[in-house]
Amino acid sequence: MNAKRLGWLQTHSLVWMVSGLIIWSVHFVLIYVLQAVSCALGWASRDLAGLSFINVILVAMTVPLVLLLLYLAWGSWLAWRSSGRTPDDPTGVTPFMALTALLIHAISFLGIVWVTWPVLSARLVRPVLQGKPISHRLLPH
Amino acid sequence: MIEPRSTADRLDARFSIFWSAPSGLGQLSAVNHTSIGNRFIVTGFIFFLIGGLLAMLMRTQLALPNNDFIDFQTYNELFSMHGTTMMFLFAVPILEGFALYLVPKMIGARDLIFPRLSAFGYWCYLFGGVLLYSSFFFGQVPDSGWFMYTPLSSREFTPGKGSDFWLLGVTFVEISAVTAAIELIASILRTRAPGMTIVRMPLFVWAMLVVSFMIVFAFPPLILGSILLEIERAFDLPFYAPERGGDPLLWQHLFWLFGHPEVYIVFLPATGFLSMLIPALCGRPIVGYTWIVMALIATGFISFGLWVHHMYATGIPHLALSFFSAASLAVVIPTSIQIFAWIATLWLGKPRLNVPMLFVIGFFVNFIIGGLTGIMIALVPFDWQVHDTHFIVAHLHYVLIGGMLFPLLAAFYYWLPHFSGRMHSESIGRLVFWLMFLGFNLTFLIMHFTGMQGMPRRVYTYTDGLGWDWPNLVSSVGGFVMSAAVGLLVVDLLLHFFYGRRAPRDPWKAGSLEWVTRLPPQPYNFISIPEIKGRDPLWVQPNLVEHTENGGGYLADPASGRRETLGTSVLQARPEEVIHLPTNTFLPLVSASFVAMFFVGFLFELYSVAAAGALLALASGFFWAWRSGDLQDPGEVDAGHGLHLPMHHRNPTGPGWWGTLIALFSNGALYASLLFGYYFLWTAVPDWPPSAYVIHDLRLPTLGLVSLLASSVCVRWAISRLQHAKLPQFRAGIVAAVLLAGGFLVAEFLAMRAYAVPAEAHAYSALLHIIVGYQFVHVGVAILAAVFVLVRVHFGYVGPQRQLGARVMSLFWHYTVLAWVLGYTTVHLSALTL
Questions:
Q1: Which terminus of chain A is less hemmed in, N or C, by CB atoms within 10 Å?
Q2: What is the distance in angstroms between the Cα of B54 and the nearest Cα belonging to chain A?
């Protein structure tokens, strides 16, 4: 991978800098919307190989986003490592932006894992709740 | 004997000729950011005093059990107006005022990039606030709480005009927030002094950049929610009425989609203050600059994922609640990063314990308490226990007063020499602080206990024997101590302007650029625009003041007689253009008056007056745009130091393009909220949409969509022809686009006319009409803009060398078409396929 560029998106841009949090936002919207849609369509009560269908969907949506996030974080890491103060950039814009991007990728990663945690743990507590998926048991009637 | 005048004084006299505003009534035409910022601050402070007065009336009522000082109706009005005033008329506008005042001075610009827009925003704020408060004269004061929950605020349960005053007044005020945000983003990104790269931006400017983006995306949901509720109240279109396919929860979603980011919109500027004050008062650079920037950006995003934590008790699926609980806890991380960076700066520096620093310490103590109770109520089970009790009231006041008012007062004392040219009184200031700190904690610390004892919020009285008596009395006493502090502050201010000691230049020995100006500053800020060589320019560039004053920087020659500032690149701040800024004009006042005519007409159901106001406002907008150009093209102008730059009209992505782009982001957020409403109701309401109400005939709508898509292609082609100086082809392309857009209007209009279901029948049919109506308005404006550009080309304002106007129009056009791709999918496809 080229450290400086992903398609039209360069490490040297404000959009790259906040890309981690854009992915966090996309994930947050999707996890909320898919959950709502699943409930509306009655998927909450369906099982898939012993797992709650809704939880499988939410995790399946999360994985590619996390991979994309890690890929971008790696790009930021490379950009940060290779950036030095050059005559063209005496004030260090490039290292600053790469480091900020990397920190933002890190906090976004934590944020995604943290927000998805209830989905994972809901599966773990399910046997305690009479074998029903938690998302189903607690739906408003 | 007359002293020979210095170079600085001679330049000052010449710049002042075209930078100052006329005196007397002519002051109303001022557009300069210093004047506008001051007006926001003064008006906001007055609303703060009024809001505080309402709070004192409530505390008087609650001081004793079974008190009959005021009745329940008045009490409802008081808490509704107190919250509304403090959030909409005080917190946001006064912070905007500080930003409008300070940002250009901190980034080395002469003025904001759209001075007339900020003046327009101020008038909207003032008129909206006056409109809201005029409800007292009509005896129709809003009484449904500051978040106006439906169905309480709906026509059935609030039949008078109270809710209408709120919805229209607040929406009017919100225009000012959005215009200020657009203004600040474009100014921060495009007008920083040369050398002020993105690494050297002051942290207050970073905070305002993040906050402005938040405003751009957070205010539209509430604006939309208010528009829908007002339409429901006025024309009986059911968006929130469950018996006709609506849902009251939709209002709560839209309100809190705004309301939670709002908390951070008032908190982040305060953190920006702290990141400026603490280094200056410690005499050392901030610790962890990069980390603070990261924290600001992270807070800006994550705070949009918290809104449902205001709705834990509404019966939302628990899995969804857990996402919001998690995000609510996650937002603590960036906030803590900032707090640790400030503590480290204090630790490593030599802090001076003066009045601003006292308020900083007050912030630390109070905000951390508010933050900790915030973590408690981010947890769903705990929140259920204290939901709608005084515990919540205590928490939110710790966050807002601790997190916003204390930093604001710190900032106020710190920048007071800037506003008045005088130093504050250390002794009175200390007294103000201690009264405020003690009064505040006396009022609200014990209120946690009152809430835990079960006292609900928003009750006008209580019986004795519940254990609520003495904590309420303590809170009331504390409240009066706090108002004594505010009273003393007012006295201090009045004395200050007469007896304050004259401030020297840079009285705090701070490093940031706003202290380069004279105190109080001249309207142009800087006689010349200096080259910036560090994060704290005054600390690293000796003689920066003399250098700037004596014309050693850029644009030091007043000969052009134009208001000018430098346009620079986004990241590296390299000079790119000279921006010609508009001068004093009554246009913002006139435009805002037309908008006021619309709102007042709507309020009193004089719809012809409202329509006239809307049309006049639109016309004044086009007149405004007409006045923005410049027939003369000086080519390149000399910016000093051998730098020759084009005027901004030559830049196809000049200031106007940036402003339009950001405004379209905001507009897009409004539209997204509308589509959210549609899909939310689809998931939340059974049998939605009712199959009998669905449009099945796709022929005309599809013809309209194709026509609109083709118009976008025409506009794109026309712009490329303009670049090649092929003016006849450009005209032909634009005319074709206008005709195609007209084709869309006819096709979609016929399709909707064939749709026999009235908008009042059901939330579904109501939303279809609103989505199509949104599109019609946009296509109409796009057509007018295209015709406007054709006329401008004819008169020579727009041409191959100066494409800005055409580019702005094309941006709007493509947005409109994109919106209909989503609109068509929603209105015509979703119900057939899903």
A1: C
A2: 39
State the number of CA atoms in the 13 A half-sphere of A75 facing the CB.
26
Residues B197 and B184: their CA atoms lie apart, in Å, by 17
Q: Quick one: pLDDT at residue B47?
A: 98
* B584 within 8 A of B26, measured Cβ to Cβ: yes
Among A36, A108, A115, the residue with its CB nearest the CB of B683 is A36
Min distance B619 CA to chain A CA atoms (Å):
36
**Averaged over B261-285, what is the pLDDT?**
96
Concatenated DSSP letters for B133-170? HGGGTTT----STTTT-TTTTSTTT--SSHHHHHHHHH
ipTM of the complex model: 0.92
**Number of neighbouring beta carbons within 10 Å of residue B510:** 19
- The yes-or-no verdict on residue B656 having pLDDT over 50 is yes
A121 inside domain: yes
In a domain, A27, yes or no: yes
The alpha helices in B521-562, defined as continuous H runs, are: 537-540, 544-549
A window 100-129, beta carbon within 8 A of B: 100, 103-104, 107-108, 110-111, 114-115, 117-119, 122
Distance CA B90, CA B126 (A): 11
Structural domain of A127 = 22-136
Number of domains in chain A: 1
Nearest CA-CA partner of B416 in B523, B497, B512 = B497
Three-state SS for chain A is CCCCEECCEECCCHHHHCHHHHHHHHHHHHHHHHHHHHHHHCHHHCEECCEEHHHHHHHHHHHHHHHHHHHHHHHHHHHHHHCCCCCCCCCCHHHHHHHHHHHHHHHHHHHHHHHHHHHHHHHHHHHHHCCCCHHHHCCCC
| Closest CA–CA distance from residue A104 to any residue of chain B (Å) | 6
- For residue A119, how far is the Cα from the chain centroid? 14
- Chain A contact set for B684 (CB, 8 A): 36, 40
pLDDT at residue B222, as a whole number: 97
Among A48-62, B64-78, B173-187, B347-361, the range scoring the smallest mean pLDDT is A48-62
Mutation target among B189, B294, B304, B309 for the A interface, most CBs of A within 10 A: B294
Q: How far apart are CA B169 and CA B478, in angstroms?
A: 32
Q: Do B323 and A37 touch (CB under 8 A)?
A: no
Residue with tokens 């025409």: B714
Mean pLDDT of chain B: 94
Q: Which residue of A has its CA nearest to B292?
A: A100
End-to-end CA distance of chain A: 51
- A16 occurs within a structural domain: no
Inter-chain residue contact B293 with A100, CB threshold 8 Å:
yes
Task: Check residue A100 and give its pLDDT.
Answer: 95
Strand partners, A6: A9
Return residues 22-61 of A near B (CB < 8 Å).
22, 24-25, 28, 31-32, 35-37, 39-40, 44, 54
Name the nearest CA neighbour of B517 among B184, B191, B106: B106
B336 part of contact set with chain A, CB < 8 Å: no
Q: What tokens does B272 get?
A: 């920006």
Which of B806, B650, B626 is closest to B734 using CA atoms? Answer: B806
A3 domain-assigned = no
Residue B330 in 3-state DSSP?
A: helix
* Closest Cβ–Cβ partner in B300, B319, B572 for A35: B319
Structure tokens at B292: 């603070």
For B739-787, the pLDDT digits (tens) are 999 999 999 999 999 998 999 999 999 999 999 999 999 999 999 999 9
Q: Find, in chain A, the residue whose alpha carbon is nearest to that of B304.
A: A25
Q: Are B293 and A100 in contact (CB under 8 A)?
A: yes
Task: Select from B320, B329, B334 the Cβ nearest to the Cβ of A35.
Answer: B320
Residue B683 with chain A: CB contacts under 8 Å: 36-37, 39-40
